[in-house]
Specification:
This protein folds into two domains: about 1-115, no CATH class; about 140-195. About 35% of the residues lie in helices and about 20% in strands. It contains seven helices and nine strands. The strands form three sheets. It has a three-stranded antiparallel sheet. Strands 4-3-5 form a three-stranded antiparallel sheet, with helices on one face. The chain has a three-stranded antiparallel sheet with strand order 7-9-8. Helix 6 crosses helix 7. The radius of gyration is 25 Å and the shape is elongated. The mean pLDDT is about 90.
């Protein structure tokens, strides 16, 4: 997952100087904010605030004229006029529900933690979110991926022992489309991913 941002003051003045943050390598929102500050320091062409960067640890403090680093306390800092705000240019593998015009929504960090710790693949998670299933309910609600509702209904019937794989009859007479319509009152589907209604 990554996000590409423009320094906003530059963008508003017709200067495109994007920078990309690899969200897979960022631990939390605080680290993400520091990556933005570094991006603004390195990529701002124009600006509207003075910013400091520590020449020892690399910590950046936007809109600051501190003479020492707030992170490591050294007095070896450099100054630059930078942007203090940003706007989203592009993103990759970040669901639209977690990204706005100017930034990631704070709920993204719970999503990122969930993705890192779940057995579900990202596409299944996105399907569940599309169906408005809360992150905390996704794993319990998820039942699998199927070609269509009929295959899903057949598999459910087989799982409870209602299908005799050796018998031709009555399997050849069962209306699996009708069975699927009945069972789907209790389930939801998106892009082939099936979930119990919660």
């Amino acid at each position: 997952m990554n996000i590409t941002l423009y320094p906003l003051h530059d963008y508003n003045n017709g200067i495109l100087s994007p920078f990309t943050i690899d969200l897979d390598t960022v631990a939390d929102e605080d680290e993400y904010r520091q990556e933005i500050a570094k991006g603004l320091f390195e990529h701002s062409v124009t600006g509207n605030v003075e910013t400091t960067r520590c020449m020892v640890c690399g910590h950046v403090h936007i809109a600051s004229h501190d003479e020492e680093c707030e992170e490591c306390g050294t007095e070896t800092v450099e100054y630059k006029i930078t942007n203090e705000e940003w706007i989203v240019c592009d993103s990759e593998d970040v669901p639209g529900a977690y990204i706005g015009e100017y930034d990631l929504y704070s709920a993204f960090w719970a999503y990122k933690e969930f993705i890192e710790n779940t057995h579900m693949d990202a596409k299944a998670v996105e399907a569940g979110l599309y169906l408005d299933i809360a992150l905390g309910d996704l794993e319990e609600a998820y039942v699998g991926q199927y070609k269509d509702d009929e295959e899903f209904a057949y598999q459910l019937a087989d799982d409870i022992g209602a299908v005799d794989g050796e018998a031709v009859w009555p399997q050849t007479c069962i209306d699996w489309a009708h069975a699927a319509r009945e069972i789907m009152y209790d389930y939801s589907e998106h892009d082939g991913y099936y979930f119990r209604r919660v």
